Amino acid sequence: MKRFFTIFALVWALAACEKAPTIITNDSPEYTGTMVVAYEGEDFEQTGIKVLGEFDESKTTIDIKLQKVKFVPAMPIRIDVTIMDVPVVSDGEGSWTFEADGLTPWAMGGPYETYRVDDLRGTISGDSIEFSLGFFNTKKQENYPTSYSGSLR
After folding, report:
1. Which residues of the chain have pLDDT under 70?
2. Which class does domain 23-152 fall in?
């Protein structure tokens, strides 16, 4: 019997240590939608792309996290890209606008300086998000216009 209680206590302790799932709140909404990248004169469209928006505590900036994206058809892997510290403004009625220029996105564990985010413009309204931007390749001196439209999952 003592052995049973020891095993039970061990299983209970391990279960108690398990991390609780992240709860999506208004401070970090997750959207699912379509991303389109203009590449070599054609639109490269991906559906089912998740974007997480994380507001700071004062709700004056937002981090926009594009999850598991490809930017060109031949890209061998999908990556997560974060555009950090984007200024955001509320209209006081539940809608937000954001815009920024010249930001260095983060990808693969650090700043991804090969690309620069230019002309980022977007809105969050109700259960939807829409934005457009240019990913400017600083080495090739080429711009890749990108747009996203999604809704809360």
Report:
1. 1-27
2. mainly beta
In angstroms, rounded to a whole number, what is the distance separating the alpha carbons of residues 76 and 105? 19
Using an 8 Å Cβ cutoff, are 141 and 114 in contact? no
Burial class of residue 62, CB neighbours in 10 A (0-12, 13-18, 19+): buried
Question: In this structure, are residues 48 and 32 in contact, taking their beta carbons and an 8 Å threshold?
Answer: yes
Every domain of the chain and the residues it spans: 23-152
Query: How far is the C-alpha of 120 from the C-alpha of 145, rounded, in Å?
Result: 10
Q: What is the pLDDT at residue 58?
A: 87
Residue 96 structure tokens: 């937000």
Between CA 115 and CA 57 the distance in angstroms is: 28
- Give the C-alpha separation, 72 to 39, whole Å: 7
Beta-ladder partners of 120: 100
pLDDT at 127: 93
- Map residue 103 onto helix, strand or coil: strand
Q: What whole-number distance in Å separates Cα of residue 92 and Cα of residue 85? A: 20
Cβ pair 43, 37 in contact under 8 A? yes
